[in-house]
Here is the input.
Amino acid sequence: MDKDRLSQVFGGVWSELMRTPIHLDSLLARQTPRAKSVLAQVLPPILMRPVSIAEAVGVGIPEGQPWNLDRVALAGWPAARQIALELHGLLERGALPAVRAMAEDYPPTMREAILADWESSAERIFSELAKPAPLSLRISRKVDRQLFLDRWKQGGKIPVRMRPSELSPLGLVLESYTPILRTPEYERGEFEIQDEGSQVMSLFTLWPERFAPLLSEVPGAPAYGGVIGVPEGNPPAWKVVDACAGAGGKSLALADLMKGQGRLFSYDISAPKLQALRRRATRAGVNNIQAVQVAEGSELQSLAKFAKSADRVLVDAPCSGWGVLRRNPDIKWRQSAESLQRFPALQLRLLEAYSTLVAPGGMLVFGTCTFRKTETTEVVEKFLDKHGSHFSKGPGGFLGPGSSDGFFMQSFQRTS
Here is the structure.
């Protein structure tokens, strides 16, 4: 693609990305295959590391930019187009210099919050969130993971290296992206694309004590040195609830871990996402999931008749998403102070509502894909302040960002 064409295409996509809430993947999907390929090389790095990439390719930008610009100014930020052109030229020649991670690649509010919360590990967090995200698979328990890996290696099905996960006993990790969804194995439900950390949250939901060693007191800590296996034999016929199921990545993992035993209820406010979950469950051959739509703000009324009936309840609550910035780098360009302020109250409300479903002796798990204290440990403290007479605090902690995305998970046991 020549410079004039790249400048035109990049400028249009960049402007729409900054002016609208449309996700980057959706914008790229609209492009021609050639344009999509080029934009996928230059856009994510600029979104993840605007200041350090600018420095590496020799584009000077005024101090404070881009974070001191409003949305209108960002949409027309001339430096973005120039960085894209220089970066593409260097990539074409294979001459891209080393890019050092910089705290200035993050908005001041985010930078200050990370430093205030996690000063000792902030540098590692900044560095890990600037790296490309790996592509991870969760292999169905219907399939032997090693046999699956051996078969794909011997058959030469993919052009990149694949290895077993160092975190999840069900995971395989590819060293770079490659299209794998149009394969017979996928159509047969032998695997799902799912981050290693998301897999661990599913495992932790069912067996918190067993998988607690994978977690750390601070985010960004080195990964645990070993893989913990799934308990042998058939799991108990539990009633399990996935409270904020979305399109169902964790629901599918939970159902697979349960080997079709018991019942899994997947709740969400989005009908399209639940419909996607039903389609995915059919393809995966999972038949113990019941997808249920609830009205936002009316969860307590919807759940009242199921009080104290569930053995396991996962509340993977909406959050700022800072732990998945390397997959969704556009988040930090669009997030307002107002949106950040509303998450803790929403998380506590959902945790309280769905805690009513936990049976005596059952487990409640609160999870987020962020590491802000206001959305993790502080929510836990507020929940215990109000409900500590009925719930005791169990294992919990942070996972990633590192080999996995960044997650927080905390378990509670209902005592009365």
